[in-house]
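Example A, followed by Example B.
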Amino acid sequence: MPGPSASTPIIHGDHLFTSTVNESDKTLHAICLDRKTGKIIWDNKTGDGIRRDDMSNFSAPSPVVDDQRAFFFYGNGTLVAFDHAGKELWNQSITKEYGDFAFQWTFSSSPLLFKDKLYLEILQRDVPVHGKGKQGAESFILALDPATGKTLWRQLRPNDAVAESKEAYSTPMPYEDKGRTQILISGGDCLTGHDPETGKELWRWGTWNPEKIGHWRLVPSPIATAGNVLACAPKGDPVYAIKADLTGKLDDSAIAWKSDKRVISSDVPTPAVYEGDFFILSDGKRNLSRVDPKTGAIKWTVEVPSRKKLEASPTVADGKVYFMNFGGEVTVASAEKPEIIDTIAMGDPGDDKIRSAISVANGQLFIRTNKKLFCIGKESGVAAK
C-alpha cells in the first residue's frame, strides 16, 4: 500500500476496493484490486493533501459498493463515484457545498449505501475548531442519488451536546424490524432513528451524558438486533440498549438494559452481531464479551492479550471473532466460548494507529495494515469445510 488508511477493504465479486493516501506525494487515492491475485486493476488519484492532524488522515472513511459503482468519501469532504472499471462518474465536495467540517480531529464517518440511496452523516460543532468550520454550522444527514450524486434530501439533526461532544465519527446504520425500516444515527449525546425515504426523525433517545461533559465525542456506530439498538457511551461509560420500535422523544423507560461499565464499555470499536448476539470489544477493559441482545446478560467474557490500543471494530465469521490492534497484531477468538485461539503479528516494525477492520468474503480474510494488504485463506476463495 502507498500509505496508511483506517479504511476497511470492501469486496464485490472478484474486485476489492479501498481508499488510501500516498505518503510520497501527499495525495489521496481510490484503488481497485483483483481479489484473487492482489494485482491493482486501477488506481485513481482523488485529491491533494492527506491530513490535518497526526492522529489519522483523510482516507479513514471506508468505500461502499453496489453492482455498478464504487463510492469513495474522504475526510476533506470529497465524494467520488467510479464504475467498476475505474471510470469517474461524478465528483463533488460536501465541504464546498455546506462548509468545512467543524471537528477537533479529522472527520471520518463512512457513507451508507442502502437500497436506492447513498447516506452521509455530518455531526459536528456549531462553532469553528482550529480554524475549520463556521459559526452556526449545522449537523445534518444527507441522502444522495447514487447515479448522479444529486441531493435527494437534507435533514437537520440538532442536539443539546456541548463542545467536542457534538462531534461524531460514527456511520449511519440501517435497521429493519417489525415492518419498520429506519436509519440509525448516534452522536451529539443522543441516538435517533430516521425514515430512509425522507430523513424525518422517528424517535430520539438521550442522553448518556446528563452532565454535558464537553469532550465526549462519539466514535462507535449504532448496531441493532432483536429489537434493541446499542449506543456505546464514550470514555469508559456503559453500553445502552434502546428499544427500536418506539416513536417520539423518549425517556429512560426506553432503555431495555445497560451494561456494567466495570466489565463492558466501548469507546471506539463498533460491536458486531453474530448468531443473534452482540459481540462487544471493550477497548479500555481489553476484553471481548458475548451478550444477549434482549437482556444484556453476559454469556461470556474473555481477556484480550493486547498491550497496544484496540480501535478497529471486531468482525465475526465462521465461529470466530477477528480484530487487530494499533501495531497490527490480529487476535482470533472463538465466538462460541471464552477462548483466544491465536494472536498473529501482521504489522511491520514501528507500525502504529492501525484501525482498519478485517473483511471477510469467499472464505478469505482481508487484513489492511499501514503498509500492506493481505488475503488469507484458500487460493480458490472457497471456504474450508
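Example B, a separate protein, is given below in the same form.
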Amino acid sequence: MSGSGIVVLIIVAVVVIALIFYALAHRSPVQLTRQLRSTSFSRRRSDRIKAAAAADVAAMEEDDKYFHPHAGRDSDSEL
C-alpha cells in the first residue's frame, strides 16, 4: 500500500468513528438507557435459569435415591 493509500484509509476511519459518535450523541438519554439496561429481558432470563436449575437439583436428588441408597447411614456401619 502506498503512502497516499494509508492516508485515505486513516481519513475514512476517522470519518466513520466521528459519525458513530455523532449518532450516539444525538440520541435521547431514554433511548440509550433502554438499550443499555434491558431489565425485563434480564429478569425473564434469570427466572428461566433459576427454574431450570431447580429442576436439575430435583432430578439429581431423585437420582441420588437410586445411586446412593445408603447415603443417610454412617459409613462405619457398612464396613
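On Example B: Helices lie at 3-25, 29-36, 39-67.
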